[in-house]
């Protein structure tokens, strides 16, 4: 009943919370500043972690196995190889390329002078058919390549060898290590926000005691402080969102200019910025709400 009564007076409690923030100016500003700094750290770490994860996944997905078919293999034998490739566990996609397409790729990759020279090979194409194999998990690329080598009429299998496997393991360690580090640091900074709000409320223990002496209910006392924590979290998220909006858009433009690649691609600014902004607001308000709730609670216990 106390809670429902307090909810009915929510507009008055909101007004009281805003007045308390204004009245306790220095302490409120220090709390908002602490929230701003910590949310800024979370935003930077979140952006780095998300984009590192995206880039590493993109690199892993770009790893393919190139399979050359014997030149003397018949069309039936080449087709049989494709069927066996699709049957290998862990293969995501198999793309066929005829010997004519392979020669055209080779010609197009040459300079204008050499193109004429390589074009003469069209009369007697020295190349064979080929397959490009994409795998579901880059960690299994060496194992799958080994299986492909055992298929009859396969002339050569190329995937980068042990260096590719080492790179896959390195990318996985980077991704997992980054995620753990970002999570641990997020917990630490959220604890800092809650502790800052707790200190601000502790300094007003006398105010809470007086309210109790005049007969105010627990929820009547608690709710304005909780709303105050929410507003502090909300105000503290404004600057990080502004920095995120302009900073990430600028960083994205500069990165794409310097490293224009189909693999090294960052998250597009929108709607990524809106999603990150929503997370920052929820974190700030949520931690402010929960931190205030537990900080006030100890002053309401006899």
Describe it for me?
Residues 64-157 form the FtsX extracellular domain. Keywords: Cell cycle, Cell division, Cell membrane, Membrane, Transmembrane, Transmembrane helix. The protein has twelve helices and four strands, in the order H-H-H-E-H-E-H-H-E-H-E-H-H-H-H-H. It is an alpha+beta fold. It has two domains: 1-60 and 166-300, no CATH class; 64-158, Alpha-Beta Plaits. It has a four-stranded antiparallel sheet with strand order 2-3-1-4. The longest helix has 42 residues, at 161-202. The relative contact order is 0.16.
Nutshell version of this structure?
Helix content is 73%, strand content 8%. The chain is an alpha+beta fold.
Largest sheet: 4 strands, antiparallel
Instruction: Please count the beta strands (DSSP E, at least 2 residues each).
Output: 4
**Judging from the principal axes of the Cα atoms, what is the shape?**
elongated
- How would you name the oligomeric state of the polypeptide chains in this document? single chain
H/E series: HHHEHEHHEHEHHHHH
| Mean pLDDT over the residues | 84
Q: Strands of the biggest beta sheet: in what spatial order?
A: 2-3-1-4
User: What is the alpha-carbon Rg in Å?
Assistant: 31 Å
Catalogue the unreliable spans. Answer: none
Number of helical stretches of at least 4 residues: 12
Strand content: 5-15%
Please identify the structural class as seen in this structure: alpha+beta
Structural domain tally: 2
Helix content: over 70%
Distance between the termini: 21 Å
């Amino acid at each position: 009943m106390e809670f429902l009564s307090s909810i009915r007076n929510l507009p008055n409690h909101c007004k009281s919370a805003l007045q308390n923030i204004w009245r306790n100016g220095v302490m409120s500003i220090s709390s908002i500043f602490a929230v701003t700094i910590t949310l800024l750290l979370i935003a930077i770490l979140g952006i780095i972690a998300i984009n590192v994860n995206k880039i590493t996944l993109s690199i892993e997905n770009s790893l393919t196995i190139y399979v050359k078919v014997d030149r003397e293999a018949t069309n039936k034998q080449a087709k049989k190889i494709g069927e066996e490739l699709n049957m290998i566990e862990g293969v995501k996609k198999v793309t066929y390329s005829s010997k004519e397409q392979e020669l055209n790729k080779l010609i197009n990759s040459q300079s204008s002078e050499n193109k004429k020279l390589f074009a003469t090979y069209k009369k007697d194409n020295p190349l064979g058919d080929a397959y490009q194999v994409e795998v579901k998990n880059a960690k299994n690329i060496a194992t799958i390549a080994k299986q492909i080598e055992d298929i009859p009429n396969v002339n050569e299998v190329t995937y980068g060898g042990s260096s590719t496997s080492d790179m896959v393991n390195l990318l996985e360690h980077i991704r997992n290590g980054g995620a753990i580090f970002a999570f641990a640091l997020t917990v630490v900074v959220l604890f800092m926000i809650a502790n800052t709000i707790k200190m601000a409320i502790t300094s007003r223990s006398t105010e809470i005691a007086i309210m109790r002496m005049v007969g105010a209910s627990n929820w009547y006392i608690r709710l304005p402080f909780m709303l105050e924590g929410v507003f502090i979290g909300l105000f503290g998220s404004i600057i990080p969102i502004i920095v995120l909006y302009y900073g990430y858009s600028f960083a994205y433009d500069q990165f794409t200019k310097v490293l224009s690649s189909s693999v090294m691609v960052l998250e597009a600014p929108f709607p990524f910025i809106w999603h990150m902004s929503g997370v920052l607001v929820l974190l700030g308000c949520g931690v402010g709400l929960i931190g205030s709730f537990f900080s006030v609670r100890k002053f309401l216990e006899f």
